[in-house]
Amino acid sequence: MASIMAGLATAPALSSVALAAPAAATKDFSYTTKAIETSASRIPNLISTTAFVAGIAMAIAGVFKIKAHVDNPAQAPLKDGLIRLAVGGALLAFPLLTNLMVSLVGQDAGAGHLAHTKIANLTY
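-> structure tokens emitted (124 positions)
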């Protein structure tokens, strides 16, 4: 009961702070949206880096699986190593392919955004 009374006693003080906060909240909200936009613009780089690291790991795993096949062909099929090498190669090529797609679709306008290219009108 005492904690409820203490909460009721501090409620008017907190409400006066909350009423004085809209100017600060606007600044905080714009700062927060800018921070989210900045963080979201880094996601493509994160995906490319993750694909690159995973590609290296898969390629190394493929080499070890092929070595295991050479050591004991009955226990380790060759297809496991070849699949890992192919997946590793695809993941290593992923950042290159995404940069190629960006250059084909439009120019990078900075911060990970595409600037749309305009196609001229066709005349026949």
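Residues 17-21 have pLDDT under 50 and may be disordered.
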